[in-house]
Structure formats: C-alpha cells, structure tokens
Amino acid sequence: MKKTLTTTALGLLAAFGLTQAALADIKLGASISATGPAAFLGDPEAKTLEMLVADLNAAGGINGEKIALVLYDDNGDPNKARTFATRLVEDDEVVAIIGGTTTGTSMSILAVAEDAGVPFISLAGAIDIISPVKPHTFKTPHTDRMACQKIFEDMQKQGYTKIGMISGTDGFGASMQAQCKDVVGDYGIEIVADETYDPKDADMTAQLTKIKNAGGVQAVLNPGFGQGPSIVTRNYKQLDIGLPLYQSHGVASDGFIELAGADAAEGVRLPGTALLVADLLAEDDAQRPVVTAYKAAFEAKTGTPVGTFGGYAHDAFLIMTDAIARAGSAEPAAIRDAIEATAGLAGTTGIYTFSPEDHLGLDLSAFRMLEIKGGKWTLVD
C-alpha cells in the first residue's frame, strides 16, 4: 500500500520562511504499520503524518518548497519494511525516512538507511535502535531502559524492595525485560518472581498465580506491548492480587484502558508523555503549547482521541522539518547534520537535544509518571 501526498502542519511550523519561490517538492518517505497487529500504534502515526504534511503545505511549505510524502504500510512485517525502505531510497529517491512503528520494522529500515546514508527517525522504543549510536538513525520515543528507570524510581519512593515481573516475549517485551534486569539493582530492588507470556496468549492466569504465591512480592511490573498487557491487567483483577501493578510506556494510550476495562485498570501506573495529560499541564510547562495544538488538530481532523503513538510521529515530523529549514537544504547529509544539531526543541514526547553521542535527545524528565483513576490518566508527579 502506498500513498503519495502533497499535503500538512500545525501553525507552529509556519515560521519556517515562506517567501522563496517554490522549487521541486521535498520527498519524505515513511514506512508505517498502519494495518496488522501493530495498527493501534501505526494508524494514528500515519494519520498524523498525513495531517502534518497537509497543514505545512497549506501554510506554504518550507522556504516555499512543498513536502511530498511517500507513505507505505508495512503491516508490522520487518521484511516488508526492509523492502519498502529500499524502494523509498532507490525508486522514490526520498531525502529522509520516518517510520518503524515497531522495533522489528525499525531495525529493518535503519539497516537500509544507514547503507544509503539517508537520515531516519524511528517511532519505536527499544534502546538498540540508537545504542550504539548509528550515524543516520534517530528516534522519538523514550527508550525501554529509561522506562525501567522511571518505574523503579517510583517504586523506590514507595519503599518497594521485592517485585514480580511478567514480560511479553515479543521484541519489545524481551528488550524491556532485559533492560529492567540490568538496572533494577541500582534502585535496591530485587526481582523475586519472573514470568513470561507469548503475545498471542489469551490468558496469563497461570503466570500471575505463580507471582501471587511467590513470597515477599510488593508490586508487579509488566514490560509489555500490544494486547498482552490488557489481558494481564484483566487477569490481575480477576485473581484479586491486590498489589500495585505497573505497566510499560508501550501501552500509554486510552486504548489500553478500553481493552483492559476501567475497573481492572484502576490504579495502574506507568511512565507516559505529557500528551496524555495535556489538560493537567501547568501554564508555564514548555511542552504545553505544542501538546495542546497537536491534540486539538488531531482530534478535530480524525474525531478520535489523541494518543502517545501519534505523538511520536508528530515529533519525528517536527524534528525533520525543523532540520530541513535550518539546513537550508534538502540534501540527506545536510538534513542529518541539522538533526544532530537540534537543541531545545519541544515536542509532545519531550524536549529534544541531540548530539553526536545521543540520537534520542531526551532524559528522564521527559517521562511523566501517570496513574489511571476513574478511567482517566492522572499525574503522579
């Protein structure tokens, strides 16, 4: 599936300079999982990119040049993502790529982008995407390692020293499980029960029962992604485990609450973005203007609630177009250099400052610890 658009952005991009005569379109590529098992992530990402391209072009483009978006739907298949990335580079001749809804598709795309010397901004969470640093690859979501650290910070504040963990065996779950195990000791916390589940499992009662019966567990963490964490949350409630439950940033959306059920999700904590609590942000919060503008535009355009994952695409587009404007060039090398020089750019996920040593550009302050109360997201800190 391919869409070629000469269409979108929010008013915040209108200041890029619109006085020069239009030249050739700037061809921007994207491979997104708009359908398939990761569609709940990819669909809002694709809609966000389409909206932003249309808005930016309506405002005059970048220095008079319009964006032509070449968008492929990879269905969450890493092999398709690699094929589309190759097509974007060799046939479509794009100057940069946004995409990689999942870790698997991101790894496929970045292999192509690095070989071709084309800047790529991933929308997936695994730390492996940007660590070690790869010259042309950047990403917008926090890493799974950062999510572990934010969760353990909160657990430490609550005085928890022994926890249970139940993790998905997919790429995201396995990566976050490993990262959490690597840093948990820094917070004086011990994992005394450790279970896993397949993403296709329809019931996790057996694993959760083992955790419930393990001695000394004070809280439970589920490094997971997709529908698995919703099932875990429902089973957790059914078993009346009665201990605090933490989820990953991979399910930070209203869709998680809907799938799990507000009653079962009550009290669940996880690290998320400012976008989920836009109305609760302080007036002087540096992210408030961009968060509220994107939320209003997306919800007006689609009639659906804004979510974290569309926000990742918003930030990737913002970073990319800001870099093109500052570079004064649509050459891949110039765009790459300008992305790496980005400093203090407020997005929906955090405030980005990249460097040659850091292609994420976020620190733990970009995460907000959230708790579900009455079916709504609330701020813990």
TrEMBL record:
Pfam families, A to Z: Peripla_BP_6
Annotated source species: Ruixingdingia sedimenti
Recorded superkingdom: Bacteria
Keywords: Amino-acid transport, Signal, Transport
InterPro entries: BCAA_transport, Leu-bd, Leu_Ile_Val-bd, Peripla_BP_I
Family membership: Belongs to the leucine-binding protein family.
Transit peptide is among the record's keywords: no
N-terminal signal peptide: 1-24
Endoplasmic reticulum listed as a keyword: no
Name this polypeptide is given: ABC transporter substrate-binding protein
Domain (Leucine-binding protein) ranges: 26-361
Lineage: Bacteria, Pseudomonadati, Pseudomonadota, Alphaproteobacteria, Rhodobacterales
Family annotation (SUPFAM superfamilies): Periplasmic binding protein-like I
